[in-house]
Every structure is written in structure tokens, then in C-alpha cells.
Amino acid sequence: MGTVLIMRCGTHLLVISLALGASAGFASPADAQERSSAPARPARSDGSTVNDHVRRARRARDAGRWTEARDAYKAALEASEQSPSAQVYPEEIAGELGSCELKLFNYREAAEHLTRSLERRELLPLETQRRFKVAQLKAEFYVVTLLLSVDPPDAEVFIDDQRMGRSGRTHKLFLERGRHVVRARAPGREEAIHAFNGERGAKQEISMQLPHAAVSSTREAPPATPEPVSTSPAARAQAPGPWASWPGTLRIGGIAITTATAATGAVLLLRAHVVHTNLREGDVVRRQQGWTSHTCREASAPAACADIQRQVNQRNLLATLGKVSLATSAVFGVATAASFLTEAAFFGGAPGATGVRIVPVTTSERAGVLLEGAW
């Protein structure tokens, strides 16, 4: 009996264990399916990613880490093209990217991104527009600006064997200085080729029209070998003048000297006027006290006459120095302006990208000039 009871209990325990194992086996897939059907945590949107990149870029920019700021703005620009929910416009990101590239002397990339930003400047604040415009002018001074028009507009354009795509009838491109070859081709048209030498700060305007390919009635004619360079006056871009590569250092120096001497002369003359006004007011007071024009010439002249004579000498010295400074400014200003006029007269070209506008500014307390330009 004892043996039978033990065997029966062992059998019951075995059955219970198998039942529990089966139930656990059936419950596990169900639990797994329930967990898989549960809603997953929402992934961060692309807009958040763009904003994070922009914040990181601004911190790096404010700290002067231009390489890190450039990489962060570039990542933000790539992400913003796929995210309409970002808080920053792609145009602003492109402009900030171009400003960082300008700091890193990547002039061609800077000119491209700043130009792209200013194409929709109405989305930018006015102060940001001005900042990007100044940066764009600086970047364009160091590159070649190519204004290319192609007919038909769907033609493929290649610059130095690099495909530029089909972006429309007109193209504004930025290239490094040196020799470049432009190719354009389209189905059913003959290929057009144009070569030119570009100098930094210069603008090249090229118009390319692809003629229809000739069709033979018997068999297809072999493709004609295009001429390496078009020689017609209409297709040939204006060659850069001998002064196109002339360094603007001397002009900038002349402008700087003109500005400095003009400002110095204006300040000296203004100071002389202040001293003269003080003398005149003091003379009125002294005449009321009984002084005459011969008081300081007498043997028993008051001690104040020495101070009056010192102020007179100071006024005369300031006036003389101011006039000399203004005359020096005029000489350098005329010489600098003559360099631009000589270039336009003898070489038939407009002044280069080093053009500067000088505007005198005078108030009741100070005087100076406003220098506006790009260099």
C-alpha cells in the first residue's frame, strides 16, 4: 500500500508539472504578441532634429568653433529639406552655413549658400539680410561668378566635366579662379563647348545656344567634333582686362588713408571751432568786465592773458592740422578715384568688386565718413 500511494502521488505530480509547462508555453507567445502589439514610443520628428542641430551650431558659432558650427549647420540644412515642421527656415540655415564657410576661407561654398539664402530674403529679418548680403559680397570677391544662359533650358550642363544638371535656362555658378570648360548637350542637339579664363572677383556672362543636329536621309551621320572654343563675338564672353587681376590692396590702402585723414581733419577742425567758441564767449565776458583789445598788450597785463594766448595758439594749430589732413585726404581720394576711372576709360570695363562708396557724416558733436563696399 505504501508503495502504491507513493507511485500515485508521483503520477499526479508529473501530470500537474506537465499542465503547468503547457500553460506557460501557451502564455508566453500570447504575452509576446501583446507586447509587440503595444504602441511604441513616438520617434523624434525631423523638426526636432533640425532644431537640435541649429542649437548646437549656434553654440559652436558663438564660441568661435567655426568647423563644428559649419558641420552642424550643414546637418541641419540636410535635415530641414525633409522637415517642414522645423522652427528655422532653410534659407536662414543656408545663410549661417555660408557665413561659417566664409570664416573658414571656403569662398566658393560660402557664395553658393549665401546666394541661395538671399534668393528668398523676404523670409529673413532685415538685419539678417544685411549681414548675409555683406558676407555674400566678401565671398564673391574671391571667386569667379559665372552667369550662364542655355537654350534649350533642359540641356545638361557640365563644368570641367562635372555635371551641373538641368536647373533651367539660366545658371549662376561660382568657380575657383583659372581656366574652365563649359559643355552643354541635349537630345537632338549639337553639343556646345565654351572655355574661358576666370579671375577672382570677375563676372563671366556666357550665352550658349545648341543648334539642332543635322539628320541624314540615308544613314545617321557620325557625330561632328565640336570646336574647342567658340570664336563668334556673340558667343565669346568678354575677356577680362589686364587690370582684372590687379590686386586691390593699393586701392584699399588709398581708401583707408583717404578715410582716416578726412576723419582726422574733420575732428581737428571741429576741435578748433570749439576752442574758438570758448575764446569768443570769454571775450564777451571780459569786455563786460572792462577789458579792451589793448589790455593784454599793456605792461601790467593780467595773468589770464597767458592762458588766453595759449588757447589762441591751440586753436590756430588745430585749424592748420585739420586743413592739412583734409588736403591730404583730397589728394589720396582723387588718386584712388582716378584708378577706377582710368581702368574704365582705357580697358572698357566697369570697376571690379573693390568698388567703395564714401559718404561724409557730420553731427553737432562729431564728424566722419561712412565707408561702404566689399573687400
Describe this structure in a few short sentences:
The chain has helices at residues 2-37, 46-62, 66-80, 90-103, 107-118, 126-141, 249-288, 304-347, and strands at 144-151, 156-159, 162-165, 170-175, 178-185, 192-198, 203-209, 356-362, 367-373. It is α+β, with helices and mostly antiparallel strands. It folds into 3 domains: 46-141, Alpha Horseshoe (Serine Threonine Protein Phosphatase 5, Tetratricopeptide repeat); 144-209, Sandwich (Immunoglobulin-like); 249-288 and 307-373.
Question: How would you spell out the order of helices and strands?
Answer: HHHHHHEEEEEEEHHEE
> Strands across the major sheet, in which order?
3-2-5-6
The assigned structural class equals alpha+beta
Mean pLDDT over all positions = 74
Question: How many whole angstroms does the radius of gyration measure?
Answer: 39 Å
Q: What is the total tally of β strands?
A: 9
Counted up, domains total 3
What portion of residues belong to β-strands?
15-25%
Low-pLDDT ranges: 1-11, 17-45, 229-247, 349-354
Provide a count of the helices: 8
Helix content: 40-55%
In one word, what is the shape? elongated
